[in-house]
């Protein structure tokens, strides 16, 4: 059982670091991120508006993974709706 708990903790820590790195790197180089997303044919002229919401889910999921009460929501958000509970 100890191996399983260590594996789960390590996996959760890896995901936290991954989401934090991805989000923070987008915020630190925001000007370049906005310009590059503006070069996308789908986003194009809406890059100023759409560049802000992209890194925010990573920060929110990280906060969920770090909070014990919200951890199930951060791991499997689609399974925690009231209609899907068994």
TrEMBL record:
It is found in: Membrane. Coiled coil: none annotated. This is Methylamine utilisation protein MauE domain-containing protein. InterPro entries: Methylamine_util_MauE (IPR009908). Keywords: Membrane, Transmembrane, Transmembrane helix. Its main location: membrane. The chain crosses the membrane at residues 6-28, 49-67. It holds the Pfam family MauE. Residues 6-74 form the Methylamine utilisation protein MauE domain. It comes from the Bacteria. It is a multi-pass membrane protein.
